Amino acid sequence: MTQDLVSIITPAYKAASYIGETIRSVQAQTHGAWEMLVVEDGSPDDTWKVIAAHAQADPRVKLIRQENAGPAMARQKALDHASGRYIAFLDSDDLWLAEKLERQLAFMRERSSAFSYTAFRRITADGSVTGRLIEVPAEMTYRRLLGNTAIATSTVLIDREKTGPLQMTKTYYDDFVLWLAILRRGHVAHGFNEDLMRYRVLGQSVSRNKWRSMRMVWATYRQVVGLDPFSAGAAFAGYAWHAWWKYRKF
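Predicted structure:
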């Protein structure tokens, strides 16, 4: 692994409208040692063309194409090509503030941290409205994360020299399952309570998506994590409470 290099993992599907802005937010980083591995996941639109144009202009942006297999396998494909000691996750419609990597790396090094996440704000689909600051707890253990929603994917930075190899699971909440797998090894995730990411809110039916999310969270607890019904119920109650509190207002 290249010691100071951050490998950025970005799955992209139907992302032509936003991926260019996402890439530009990475190019604006004050920490310049990065590679952005964008996996175009068999998208039917012009996503790959937008990525290709950026990759041609900046060799740190790397286009990887695959037949549609979903975000978990797209993330795994990027991980298989990653050269950096540090792994960051950035979804194709989210944005980083310019000092995100520099400040988060310094935070991790001060604490000898293997895994960190940050505060963030939501933005509307067109980016015209920015929401309130969503703060994060200082630490997250395996048991705490089971019933929590504190870790937003596009804020995560991992030192894989400390965690060991990262392996995605093909499931709806593949990112959440990965965080649990890392913390189950005994690591603690450290929350950096600084505003460093913008989460873009998309979708026509928010209520329908919430109900689907709730069903998939339950399935994750029972079928993927392997919790018994009582433990799954307790974790689900915590998850629902934290999700409501986190997103109770924009």
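Summary: The longest strand covers residues 189-200.
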